[in-house]
Write a structure and sequence with these properties.
The chain has 414 residues and is α+β, with helices and mostly antiparallel strands. It is built from 13 helices and 21 strands. It has helices at residues 17-20, 30-37, 45-48, 63-78, 111-115, 127-140, 155-165, 189-200, 211-227, 267-274, 324-334, 356-365, 380-388, and strands at residues 4-5, 10-11, 83-84, 90-97, 100-110, 119-120, 142-143, 147-151, 171-174, 180-186, 205-209, 239-246, 252-253, 255-259, 278-284, 295-300, 303-309, 348-352, 371-374, 399-400, 411-412. Helix 4 packs parallel to helix 6 (127-140) and helix 6 (127-140) packs across helix 9 (211-227). The longest helix is centred in the middle third of the chain and has 17 residues, at 211-227. It is globular and about 65 Å long. 44% of the residues are buried.
Length: 414
Amino acid sequence: MATVKPFKGLRPPRQLVEQVVSKPYDVLSSEEARAEAAGNEKSLYHIIKPEIDFTDGTGEHDPKVYDKAVENFKKFQDRGWLVQDPKEEYYIYAQTMDGRRQYGIVVAASVDDYLTGRIKKHELTRREKETDRMRHIEVNNSNVEPVFLAFPDNEVLERVIRETAATEPEYDFVADDGIGHTFWCITDDATIKTITDAFAAIPYLYIADGHHRTAAAAHVGEAKAKANPHHTGKEEYNYLLAVCFPQSHLKVMDYNRVVRDLNGLTPEQLLDRLAQNFDVECMGTDEYRPSRLHNFSLYMAGKWYSLTAKPGTYDDADPIGVLDVKISSDLILRDILGITDLRTDKRIDFVGGIRGLGELKRRVDSGEMQLALALYPVTMQQIIDIADTGNIMPPKATWFEPKLRSGLVIHKLD
């Protein structure tokens, strides 16, 4: 059963929230963060990407960068830009994009649940990325940025969300990218107990986004427990900061591919090879978006093509075999284009669906890439099925949008 608890959130005063909050550390470069934080000393980028406070070229893993994170985090608290709530609370966080709103419950989730598999993952993590986030959590003794979890729909928690959303929010603003962010504090003891008890009836939570942050936070908590001779299991380091969304609230976007060359083939030869496993139809010059599962969109040499996988090339009864990312990785990228490792091969790049098909066309038309492949998005149920069966999603399979804003609330580990 899922173990969560309320916590004393560290967060900005209402009048400063728009100056403090930021995009997650991993969705923009140091240069982009430096530009976004220009002229704003209250930007959270000074904590989560503190290399922006040094000259261009300073590595994000330089020891002085971590020292600067600690210095800036203390400054934010000393100057009242981040203030800790006096009481342990839960929070509701709503995001609005393109007229669609999704509500998450902000909790302190159990480190032990991650270590024992009650918080389930569907992706592999890379140790170097984990190490960086572990170091950041350790030096600040806080989960500065939340992880993004999902859970099966639950009527009790839906009722809490509905009732809370009918009240006056603590924060309500639209960021410069057009995404709306609304945030409520839950201080009522009875409602807090209702939330805790409702999560205790949910068998598993699922990592939607933030596998590296989740692993890093869990490993820090585990290390602190081992180092504390008086460890009880009740300490704050036994928990990590998470925003938990009902499964039905979430929309997974497509995560598309662009390839630098055709592996020595001409466009005509490539199409002939594709016809062995796909029904290929030229759609002309107008953008073509995949219309259903097992249908793909290919852009090459100024034209769009519909590719529909032939029966026998997929297995709808297999949680991995049903995935279009698996079909395309094996039958197109590996067997035809010679790309065997999506994580390391420099011939391929990935484009989140938020950028649209136009970005795929632009990168091919510019000559940078020779081919673009658009996929039908996976569903939350597919992600849950994979996690429940202990499988791992192929690389670069899911893109969640909107991203969580960092800095709305922080979880301190002491």
